[in-house]
Amino acid sequence: APDIPLSAVKAHLSDLQSIASANGGNRAHGRPGYKAAVDHIKAKLDAAGYTTTVQQFTSNGSTGYNLIADWPGGDTGNVLMAGAHLDSVSSGPGMNDNGSGSAAVLETALAVAREGHQPDRHLRFGWWGAEELGLVGSNHYVRNLTSTQRSAIGGYLNFDMIASPNPGYFVYDDDPAIEKVFKDFFAAKGVPTEIETEGDGRSDHASFKNHGIPVGGLFTGASRTKSSAQAQKWGGTAGRAFDSCYHSSCDTLANVDDTALDRNSDALAHAVWTLGAADDGGGG
Ligand code: DTR
Ligand code: CA
Ligand code: ZN
Ligand code: ZN
Ligand code: ZN
């Protein structure tokens, strides 16, 4: 997989910051900043050759939007999806939650196009609306697939908060094969990981898992406190939250850890390239 340039991911983040600043300070469901963010990302994907779809839904009396981008080619009977929720809470611009995941997924999709990558499996990327209202957008997406469309999705990778300022390196343990891809990546980099325990059902992967689709993903922590043991293995500050600006107005560009963002963006690309091969997993 290509290295994902941190500078490119940060450029998307600052775009999302600008969009929030120009629209009342947030990218929340039902607020103008959200749709502006959808339009920004859609334009880049269209220009890169993706087939994009904006799916509308209603929640709390406001229209919400999911952005789906299909990379032409690959076996559409064997789809690999990666996604991130694009909405923020209304209290701030949501740079870690979840500009970080949105930007990393975007730059990975753009890298696929840049490389002219032709994986065996069909690649699809998603940016979800109204996650903060209760996984509303991703649930709407999965529920509105036919059973055939659902069974064609062999795996969904979720990225929600992947650049916390006091980061941990957590890997979802929902599907062993997906988990292994991420753990092997970090092991090769000498970065220890832990199993994600804070969030079963707390992000968009749950919408897919609830319909029997294998899921995985990465997380750098929210309001839980980093232990001294964790600070020893990861650095950062023991006794402080992984993200003390979680759901706060201080979740700005300054609330993003560059090393975590870079490592997780590269792990994302590694997983898309690795799982994009129609390998039957080999072995016994
Ligand atoms: N609910 C997510 C933040 C969150 C909390 N725990 C986890 C675990 C895995 C992913 C995300 C999260 C939000 O506020 O968007
Ligand atoms: Ca990188
Ligand atoms: Zn951008
Ligand atoms: Zn949140
Ligand atoms: Zn989130």
TrEMBL record:
Transmembrane segments: none
Keyword Signal: yes
GO molecular function, one term: metal ion binding
Subunit structure as annotated in this protein's UniProt entry: Monomer.
Location in or out of the cell: Secreted
Family membership: Belongs to the peptidase M28 family. M28A subfamily.
Keyword terms, alphabetized: Disulfide bond, Hydrolase, Metal-binding, Protease, Secreted, Signal, Zinc
Cofactors, names only: Zn(2+)
Shown part of the complete sequence: 60 to 343 of 461
The organism of origin for this protein: Streptomyces xinghaiensis
Any one GO BP annotation for this protein: proteolysis
GO cellular component annotations of the record: extracellular region
UniProt keyword Glycoprotein present: no
Name this protein carries in UniProt: M28 family peptidase
